[in-house]
Amino acid sequence: MRNMQLGGRVPQAFSALSLAAALALGVAAPQAMAVVIPKVAPVDMGLASPTQVRTLSLGLTPRNSDALDALVESVADPKSPNFRQFITSAGFAAQFGQTPAVVAQVVAYLQSQGFTVTNVHANNLLITFKGTNAQIAATFGTQIHNYTQAGAAFQAPATAAVMPAQIAGVTAGIGGMGNRARPMSYAHTAPMTGPLAGDTMTPAVTAVPAGAGNPVGAWTVKDLAAKYNVNPLYAKGLTGAGKTIGIATLATYSQSDAYAYWAALGLSVDPARITDIVVDPADGAPGTDGDDETTLDVEQSGGLAPGAKMRVYIGPNAGNGFLETFATAIDEDQVDVLSASWGSPEIFYDGDPTLVLMHNTFKQAAVQGIPVIAASGDSGAYDINRNVPYPDCSTLLTVDYPAADPYVLAAGGTSLPNVSAHKHGTVAQPYERPWGGDYLKDYITQWYGLGLYYSTYLPEGGGGGVSVRFARPSYQASLTGVQNSATAQSLLCDGAVTGAGYQDLWDLAPNYAGRNLPDVALNADPASGYVLLYKGAAQGGWGGTSFVAPQLNGLLTLISQDIAPTAGNPKGRMGRPMPKMYAAFKAQGYTAGSPFLPITVGDNDYYKAAPNYNPASGLGSVDFTALDAALTK
C-alpha cells in the first residue's frame, strides 16, 4: 500500500501548538495535512510568491441529502424495489447535485475574485479552479507561505481558511491549498530495509512463472485463483468481458510491464485494453514515486479479469489530487469496479473537509452501482505508527482511510503458511492467519535486539481495527466479533518528534461504535506473497494489502459479468457489495457453501483472529465461486 498526502485542516488536538510544531508533526498547516511526521522542525521561509498559481477544489453540499442516503441503502438492499436500480452520473447531478443556478452563482463569484474555473464536475458538487496566492489570501483570508523541512521545500497556508459569506451556505469545504507530497511505500518486498537490509532472502525468481502451483512468495494471479476457488468462474466463461476495471492511483507507470506480465502467464488480452487518464488538479503533474504501486494494481486486477477493459486514473500525490482522481473516475461513469491502494491514517482527517467531499463522492459511486475498494493498510492495528514509530511515540490503535469509509470495501491481509530464509536461519509461520509481522519478533530480537524490532519493524501487518471517524454501518449491526474503539488511546510523543518536549498529541474517543475493518482478507504477507514484473524485471516476495485491493477489483469484475442487465441496471453492475456479503455471512456463517472461510489463529499485531468476524481478518478469506452465487442470485 502507498501512503499519500491530502489537503486538510489542522486537527483540533493540535490547536494549542505553534504552526512550526504542527508542521513538525506532519500537519503542515490548514488545508495541507501531511502524513509523515518527521523529526526536523520546518522553517518558515516567508510569504510565497503572490503571483504563483495553484489549483483548488471547492465542494458543494448535496441537495436532498436524506433522499440520497436512503437511495444509497435501498439500491444495495435485495428486499427493496430499488435494488440495483442505479442512476447515471447525469441523474445524480439532477437529483442530488446543486442546481445549475447555484453552480453558476458559485462559479460567477469565483470568477469575480479573479479565479479561473477549469472544471465543473458532472455531479454539480465539485468545482476545480485556479488562482494566485494573492487571490487566495484576498478571498479565503489566509496567506500561503514557503517552508522547508528535512530537505524538502513546500508551501502551506499560514492560518485557517475562511469561507466567504457569498458562498458559505452551499459549500462543504475546500481542498488543495498546500502542495507537499509525501508518498511512502507500503507495497512491501521480502528483502527487509534499514538495519536488516539483505537479511530476508527473496524467492529465486527471474521470470514470471507461466503456470500455477508456485511456492508462496512466488505467486501469480493463477496461484491466487486456485487458492480462492476462482477457476470455476473461468470455466463458466467469466473473464470480465464487457466490463471495465477502474484504478485510482497517484503515480505514473509503464503499460509494457503489465502486458508483459499477462503475456508470461499466457493470458489472452486486448492489446489496447488499457486507457490512462491523467488527472491534473494540483500544482504539478503526477510523479513516478509509487510507479511500482500502479504497476501491481494494473497487473493484478487485469490478470484476474483478462477480458475486461481498464481505465487507470492517475492523479498527483499533492493537494486535492486524490479527491479529484476519484471524482473524475466516478463522474465519467465508465468503470464497473474501482479500487485504490493508497491511503493515510484516518485521524489525520480531524476537521478536514476533504473527508466530507470524499464521502459524498463514494455515495455517488454507490448509487451509480460502482463498488469502491481500498487497501486497509500494511501497519497492522497501528496505522499511524508507520509514520510516528515507537518508541519516540506510543502505539495508537488506528485505521487507514479511505478503507475506513463504510461505503468502501476494506481489503485486509492474511499470511499463508511459509518458511522464510534468513542469514541466521529460517523462520517458520505454520498457520493461515491474519498478516502480522510479530511472528518475526523472536528472530529479530535474538539477532538484532528488541529495541530494533520496536523502533523499526513494528508495526507490519494487515490493517484493521475500529474507525473513530465513521459510525458502524447497518451491515455490521448485531454481528458477533465487531468491536467498539478501545479505551485509553493517546498518541504520546517525545521531543525528538514534537520539537517541543513530551506531548499528548491525540486522544481518541473510547468505546465508539465505529465502522470495523477490514471486510475480507486475502494473502498479503510478502513472505507468502507474489511476483511483480516491474521495469522489465521479475522479482518475488512482494506483498501488502496493495495486492488485495486490485485482486478484489478483478474478482468482483468477474462476478459483475455474471449479473444480468435489467432495465434499471442496463450495465449489469454489482453496486456496493458489503450489505449482501454481510447478509450472506449472517445467514450461512462458515457452513458448507458459505462464501467465507474462517481465520482462527494469529493477530494483526493486536486484534486476534476468531471463528467469527474480527478486526484482524474481517469475515475471513473468500471462496469466490460461492461469493458469485451469493452476490448474483
Automatic annotation (TrEMBL):
Residues 1-34 form the signal peptide. InterPro entries: Peptidase_S8/S53_dom_sf, S53_propep, Sedolisin_dom, Tripeptidyl-peptidase_I. Its cofactor is Ca(2+). GO terms for molecular function: metal ion binding; serine-type endopeptidase activity; tripeptidyl-peptidase activity. Keywords: Calcium, Hydrolase, Metal-binding, Protease, Serine protease, Signal, Zymogen. Residues 224-633 form the Peptidase S53 domain. The active site is at 293 (charge relay system), 297 (charge relay system), 546 (charge relay system). The keyword Ubl conjugation does not apply. It holds the Pfam family Pro-kuma_activ. One of its GO terms (biological process) is proteolysis. This is S53 family peptidase. It comes from Scleromatobacter humisilvae.
